[in-house]
Amino acid sequence: MTAAPNFWLAFFMIAAVIITSTTGEVLTAAAMKSIGDLDDIRAHSGMKGAIKAVLTCPLFFAGVFFLAVAFFALLFALNHLNLSLVGPAAASLTLVTNAVAGKFFLKENVDRRRWIAAVLVCIGVYLLAH
Length: 130
Prior knowledge:
mainly alpha; globular; 5 helices
């Protein structure tokens, strides 16, 4: 490992993981919602029909692309930062951004308990970083 990176470098590396991961998860969720219930598709068209429904959805591949970018961003961050910072920060802050993205992009119901949990997660990451 090289010399300790500065705050902004660490911030941008973790942010890259969070943003690409959230984007991938939102796009994948949107794809699955647009496809519909895979059990219904499988019952009507068989397993091949369910696989075809997924593989012909462009949103699915966009989601997989962003999830792959998130994976490589995570590898890059782990190469330059400590696991004890990157792991909890990326995982927990992705939970927060997923709640926000789910609410605003997918129109999901995010209740007060989840918002409180998101705030507590942010406090925990702050305490970890300092």
